[in-house]
Amino acid sequence: MAKSFKTLLAENRRLFCLLALETLPEYRAPATLLQDYLRGRGVGCGLVEVIEEMHWLEDGGLLTVEPGETIPTATLTRSGLDVVRGLTLHPGVARPEPTLQEVVVRGGIEVAKAHLGVG
Length: 119
What we know:
- This protein is mainly alpha-helical.
- The chain has one domain: Orthogonal Bundle (Arc Repressor Mutant, subunit A), CATH 1.10.10.
- The protein has helices at 5-23, 31-40, 47-59, 78-84, 98-116, and strands at residues 28-30, 63-66, 73-76.
- It has a 3-stranded antiparallel β-sheet.
- The termini are far apart.
- The mean pLDDT is 87.
């Protein structure tokens, strides 16, 4: 049976969260930055949904979530990095395309710079 659009969207959103974290120093970002990144990749959603995806990924061991004072922060784990690089598969996360990784990584750096206000 084919996957529903909702399922495909969730799987891609999770992959893009992991890809975004791979591009950032210390593999770490607040939920608001991930939300901006997802919007820029065409899979935008509300902040609550981003946080729910972060916890879903944490339950799978692909990232850790620190609560923070107001906004939680995600940090990529070694297992999450393996998924991003296509070395392992994880149910519920889209498989990265080899050419997609390079394009997304470059876009992630630009989104991070814009978010942080650096040139």
